[in-house]
Amino acid sequence: MGELQGRKFILGITGGVAAYKSAELLRLLVKAGAEVQVVLTEAGARFVTAVTYQALSGRPVWTDLWDPRADNNMAHIELGREADAILVAPATADFIARVANGLANDLLTTLCLARELPLLLAPAMNRQMWENPATRRNIDSVVADGVGILGPAAGDQACGEVGMGRMLEAEELYEALVTFVQPKPLAGRRVLMTAGPTFEAIDPVRGVTNLSSGKMGYALARALIHAGATVDLVSGPVALPVPAGVACIAVRSALEMRAAVMDHVDRAEVFIAVAAVADYRPRESQTHKLKKSGDALQLELVPNPDILAEVAARPQPPFCVGFAAESRDLDRYALHKLEAKRLQMVVGNLVQIGLGGDDNEVVIYDRAGRHPLARDDKHRVAAAIVAHLAAALAAR
Length: 396
Description:
33% helix; Rossmann fold
């Protein structure tokens, strides 16, 4: 089941070249289980036709204020009755001006004026239009009226210039919609977390590390943002995009990770240690690359600091959540970690299932007992972990 299953959106599309991104956004929304009704303006149809949007949505496209399909010819009333939100992407400077001034001279503007549901605008225009004082006034006006503004971004524009005004990419708008519709049980909470592996250098090109991909940690950071939390993520080296809304501090070694955690922990209400921190590091890291020889190579390894135990032992520690990735005896090792480090929660999994892959099967351990979660995609597992965390915080 998609993460937007059962959600209903109206996607308004106005006359801008960024309309091609809206086709990809529509595909992502439908793939996630959402029902999307496209409302296309006359100018929007000059860039991408209604046929494309109908094929992607599986629903007829609305373009005409006087379309007889709606009861009493009131499409501007009927379309918005059951939707969760209206997203206009692209929203041109002209369209934003009309919304700001309450104009209603086509189906989409009339629908926006007659709505009782949230309205989100994704601006898309040339940089001079975005910077024009009239546009700035119109943006301020619609924001004051409770309209959400998504973007714009800076970058290359169709006119050949570079600057602010680009519509956000389809993936960014998708994330914004997912975040918008999720409940916010962690609103006002600040979470500090770690994710990914650490790399302990032997020389400039070799090191001690592990197979952690960071996928579980990054999925958890995303789920925390969806739940309304402010998230500071201290991340080891991974090949993953940082989830939208997450403040990421990139580190390499365990010592760098510890320093970053200690710099941020005073502001955190919750600390979640997902990172697979190397237990040991070479006592000395060589300045130059070690050359291969026929002799055996001996490395002296020393223990790395236990970041989670150090945070949990503070005089006024945050709510501490540990992760236990084990190859056997999961219950025994996870419960020992919960007690020995005086944690509030441990999430345990077997590395044979979760390490490096897209799925995971975990068990949550806390003072109330053992709570197994079914094997699922890591994003859905992360959402379930966050729901459990939110309930635990609310019960404190």
